[in-house]
Amino acid sequence: MMEKGFRAFLKRKNIEISLKRYGIDALGAMAQGLFCSLLIGTIINTIGTQFHLSFLTQPVATIGNSAYTVGGIASAMSGPAMATAIGFALQCPPLVLFSMISVGFAANALGGAGGPLAVLIIAIVAAECGKAVSKETKVDILVTPLVTIAVGIFLSWLIAPPIGKAAQWFGGLIMWATELQPFLMGILVSVLVGMALTLPISSAAICAALGLTGLAGGAAVAGCCAQMIGFAVISFKENRWGGLVSQGIGTSMLQMGNIVKNPRIWIAPTLASAITGPLATCLFKLQMNGAPVSSGMGTCGLVGQIGVYTGWVNDVVAGTKAAITAFDWIGLVLISFVLPAIFALLFHMVVKKLGWVKDGDMKI
pLDDT tens across 117-147, in order? Predict the structure, then answer.
């Protein structure tokens, strides 16, 4: 009886404890929050630096002892942006949603390098607690934000630092392993992150949570590009130019429904990623030293390529890279566009000849 009552309460409060709600909806929203803050801020800074635009490179605000440019302000808001996006995905009432700004700031700040993962976990708990008490009292305007913020900041103090350190350690382990075994890890990272991009989860949020940069970030970019460009090219007959653009610079997730119907359509892009990943790490030494979220974006809005370029610029400024070379550009273009298209088409020809994939299987 009590269990039935509790389930009824959760249903009434729109609290759905499920993998879809937390692992797909919340995670995907977190990536959008990151895109609208950290990633956009990084792009603004890069544009300002490269085109010598003083209004983008000069500080517009000084808080404490820290001076912020336009892009710097956008990047500094990544915690609140992520948490608010998560709250929106969890369908929070207004008072809970607005309270997520404080929760996100605290979780991201105390989570350190692993802040995005801390924000994801803490924002979900704080949002659900806020939803549970929302409109349950006559002083809702006080109780709801108080509970949401108190839970969020307490958890930020309690668990954000260890979560952040664990995410940083695991991301560092992947990057260390990729440096040590660039061929095998190039395959593994490229294939797994690429598949995550096509699945209804967020590869960008995963890369951000783990702080995936360096060679591992380059492999992740390769895997995402292989999925997006691969599907765009092999499904051109069915989807023509609209499909080429929507998948090539949009998302390969558009094929998810078709993958459920015939999983074998996934073979060609995935095998392509297994080749471009180690080529990126071993031959072209492609590194993503921009914002980690860019590692999981592939060719979506060309964010992955902008991230790699931003990393080059930062490395040149820091003195760790002498200059951006022609080989750098050739590697980026080949890994991002040319090789995924070629390999995916070749593998697609084989699976079609085997009768595993038929015309119309990838119609979106």
Answer: 899 999 999 999 999 999 999 999 999 999 9
Per-residue b or e along 210-243, where b marks 16 or more CB atoms closer than 10 Å to that residue's CB? bbbbbbbbbbbbbbbbbbbbbbbbbbbeebeeeb
Report the alpha-carbon distance of residue 329 to residue 332 in Å, rounded: 5
Question: Are residue 155 and residue 256 in the same domain, yes or no?
Answer: no
Residue range 98-112, pLDDT digits in tens: 999 999 999 999 998
Q: Which domain holds residue 346?
A: 181-353
Residues 149 and 241 in one domain: no
Two tokens, residue 292: 């980690």
Question: Which residues have C-beta within 8 Å of that of residue 185, sequence separation ≥ 6?
Answer: 174, 177, 178, 215, 216, 219, 281
Q: What is the tens place of the pLDDT at every residue in 51-76? A: 888 889 898 888 888 889 998 999 89
- Give the predicted TM-score (pTM) of the model: 0.81
In a domain, 290, yes or no: yes
Residues 57 and 152 in one domain: yes
End-to-end CA distance of the chain: 46
Asked if residue 240 and residue 291 are part of one domain, the reply reads: yes
In a domain, 332, yes or no: yes
Q: Report the C-alpha gap between 316 and 310 in whole angstroms.
A: 10
